[in-house]
Design goal:
The protein is of the alpha/beta class and 663 residues long. Helix content is 56%, strand content 6%. It has helices spanning 2-41, 104-107, 117-128, 146-156, 189-198, 202-218, 230-235, 245-267, 298-312, 316-329, 334-346, 350-362, 372-380, 392-398, 418-434, 442-448, 453-458, 464-478, 498-507, 513-526, 530-543, 548-560, 564-577, 581-590, 594-607, 611-627, 631-644, 649-659; strands at 51-56, 59-64, 86-88, 95-102, 133-138, 163-167, 272-275, 387-390. The strands form two sheets. Strands 5-4-6-7-8 form a five-stranded parallel β-sheet, with helices on both faces. A three-stranded antiparallel β-sheet has the order 1-2-3, with no helix packed on it. Helix 19 (498-507) packs antiparallel against helix 20. The longest helix has 40 residues, at 2-41. The chain is globular. The termini are far apart.
């Protein structure tokens, strides 16, 4: 008995030790799970899912989640605008779905998404393939880089895409999580990748928020951390010489992220377009050419100063020699290359000028424009099958005077103007033709790819209000660093400038894009400016096509102008969004054939929401029956209208007329 008791005690003790060991090992996981559950229950932190769902007209639509920016921005208070683009899951038949990824150029700055290349591309492809549902979903976010592109792409493969379009590279150093950004994760790629996986947990968000708070209390104060433009808050003081360790580390991170993106697309047989980065070469001098702590270089300074003096005097050939002498002393001085290019440009030596303009951009210590090395990475990924390099830089050169990209297509240092975005869309469409996407034969593509570019341009959704917003955003951007060291005060808005006031409210984020355009439409309606009113409703339909109100209001504008065919066309389109009694009634009144009108009025009765609408539909139906000679049905419908609305005057008048008419 004693031996059995001892054995049992030993076994029990061993079991307890094992249980204790298991509990000890599991306790941290249990604690973390309970903490995570409690934080979610308390609604701490953000849901960083890529998409949110919304039920509209009985359908579940997917929209980009505005809070997704919380994955990438923690230290800098910034809320990038997100597009209104949407889609259905599962993907409907005859739908071609494109996701566009990148930074502010993808997002369409300064026009916002209505002026982006994605909108121009969608409109072009829709005109070419009217029997297809073309979805071009813009996921561009300002001040993000290849980490964001790769992070989003990993999830997007589950949403049935047919093509990824990536325009990315300019923000690689200073964009969120970039090696020289305030949002950097210790400049480490693997730590950043780990961070992007952990950031979805509320426990991790709590730890991150505590870290950021303590860093603000006890850490280094950033002189430009809270004020100025987003460019200034992320990048001021972070200068990166060409060929430095930081430069090559940023390059290697970019290359690794792009390679992983390419591998992801290949593993899912997903076509990927990589757009070359375009920037202003001719009309944008380098921002920074010398490090602040660099010792003076007397030999360089002498030649460089002499070159500037000779340029002012108009002696460009002599100035060219002076700048070349300066470059012999410091071959990486960006502004010396730019001055050399200006001299060569003035002397008519355009090809030589292009070489030095390119070096001026590449050697700029403030890396807001992607250097040639980064475009070379994108080019190297082209495999002539799934992965396609789209040479947008060449496209811009071909469409620029002297093949030198300048202010004709670029607004400041790198953002295209509306014509530039239009060109980008056209080039992407051409590459789709080249790769035989959507339809798979050259003959079919050639038959469809014959659009009149000027007509496409004239029918763009961009309105005067969007142009005013773009102008205002551009003014705010270029009035401070790095374009000016002494910021200019914001120019006041004339209180009588209604459109300017609306644009200012949109730019400041006080009203949404939709609210701004609705307000502009009301302004044009008061002025009876039907052409501008038409443009506003077209823009609303273009960007928010699931809102039936804009279709109906545009139909009314057409009717006021006696454009009956256009009114009928837009009202028929409205029925695909939502059936309304108004649309059916109006289509019935526009119909020349009484049986067709009767069919529309029957539908109007079916979907009518109020007694007034039902009475109106019944009265119109009675008139249509009378036109066909069916007096019995006409009387019946007129009486039905009066049952619904006893004092409805049109029905009363019609019934009297019917009763006074002999059979």
């Amino acid at each position: 008995m004693t031996r059995t008791s001892k054995a049992s005690t030993t076994d029990l003790s061993k079991a307890k030790r094992q249980a204790f060991l298991v509990f000890t090992l599991l306790f941290p996981l249990i604690f973390l799970a309970l903490t995570e559950f409690t934080l979610r229950l308390a609604r701490y932190g953000s849901d960083l899912s890529l998409f949110t769902k919304e039920v509209i007209n009985g359908r579940i639509y997917y929209f980009i989640n505005p809070d997704v920016k919380g994955r990438y921005f923690a230290r800098v208070d910034f809320t990038p605008n997100t597009s209104p683009d949407f889609f259905l899951m599962p993907k409907p038949d005859s739908t071609f779905r494109i996701f566009c990824l990148g930074g502010s150029t993808t997002a369409g700055f300064p026009y916002s998404f209505v002026g982006s290349f994605s909108t121009f591309l969608r409109d072009r492809l829709t005109a070419m393939f009217p029997e297809w549902k073309i979805e071009v979903i813009n996921l561009g976010m300002t001040a993000t880089n290849s980490f964001t592109v790769l992070d989003l792409a990993r999830e997007l493969v589950d949403y049935q895409p047919d093509l990824f379009i990536v325009y990315d590279g300019h923000n690689e150093f200073y964009g969120a999580l970039g090696i020289a950004s305030r949002e950097s994760v210790f400049g480490s790629r693997w730590l950043t990748q780990l961070y992007l996986r952990l950031v979805h947990f509320r426990t991790f968000q709590l730890l991150r928020d505590l870290y950021v708070t303590f860093a603000r209390w006890f850490g280094e104060r950033h002189e430009h951390g809270e004020g100025g433009t987003m460019m200034e808050r992320l990048a001021r003081g972070q200068y990166i010489p060409y060929g430095s360790d930081t430069y090559w580390k940023g390059y290697e991170i970019f290359e690794a992220n792009v390679r992983e993106l390419v591998a992801l697309c290949r593993s899912h047989s997903m076509p990927l377009f990589l757009g070359a980065q375009v920037s202003n070469l001719r009309d944008q001098p380098p921002f920074v050419s010398t490090l602040e702590q660099a010792p003076p270089n007397l030999a360089f300074d002498a030649h460089y100063t002499e070159g500037l003096k000779l340029m002012v005097e108009g002696r460009f050939a002599d100035a060219l020699e002076a700048f070349r002498s300066a470059l012999l002393v410091d071959s990486l001085h960006a502004d010396a290359h730019y001055r050399t290019a200006r001299c060569l440009d003035t002397l008519g030596r355009k090809r030589e000028a292009l070489l030095h303009y390119t070096k001026a951009r590449d050697y700029d210590l403030l890396r807001f424009r992607a250097s040639s090395d980064f475009n070379a990475v994108l080019l190297a990924m082209d495999d002539d099958t799934l992965i396609t390099f789209v040479d947008l830089e060449r496209k811009f050169k071909v469409n620029s005077p002297d093949s030198l990209i300048g202010n004709e297509l670029i607004l400041e240092h790198l953002h295209p103007n509306a014509r530039g975005y239009f060109l980008i869309a056209k080039e992407y469409a051409w590459k789709m033709h080249w790769r035989k996407l959507i339809v798979h034969t050259d003959d079919e593509w050639n038959r469809r790819d014959n659009l009149d570019d000027e007509r496409m341009w004239n029918e763009r959704a961009l309105t005067a209000l969007d142009e005013r917003c773009a102008q205002r955003r551009l003014t705010l951007l270029t009035s401070g660093w790095p374009f000016r060291n002494d910021p200019l005060p914001d120019p006041p808005i004339d209180p009588n400038d209604t459109l300017g006031i609306i644009a200012e409210q949109m730019v400041r984020g006080l009203i949404t894009w939709e609210q701004g355009h609705v307000t502009a439409a009301e302004y044009y309606a008061r002025r009876n400016d039907l052409a501008s009113l038409e443009g506003e409703y077209k823009a609303l339909i273009n960007q928010i096509p699931f809102n039936v109100s804009a279709y109906l209001l545009l139909g009314q504008v057409y009717l006021h102008q006696n454009k009956n065919m256009e009114a009928a066309g837009i009202l028929v389109r409205s029925l695909d969004v939502q059936e309304t009694s108004y649309a059916y009634r109006t289509l019935g009144m526009l119909a020349l054939d009484p049986p067709v009108a009767i069919n529309f009025f029957l539908h109007a009765q079916r979907v009518a929401g109020s007694m007034q609408e039902k009475a109106e539909a019944a009265t119109l139906l009675a008139q249509a029956y009378w036109r066909t000679g069916d007096r019995h049905r006409a009387v019946s419908e007129a009486q039905n209208a009066l049952v619904l609305q006893p004092n409805f005057a049109p029905a009363q008048q019609l019934l009297r007329a019917l009763q006074s008419t002999s059979p």
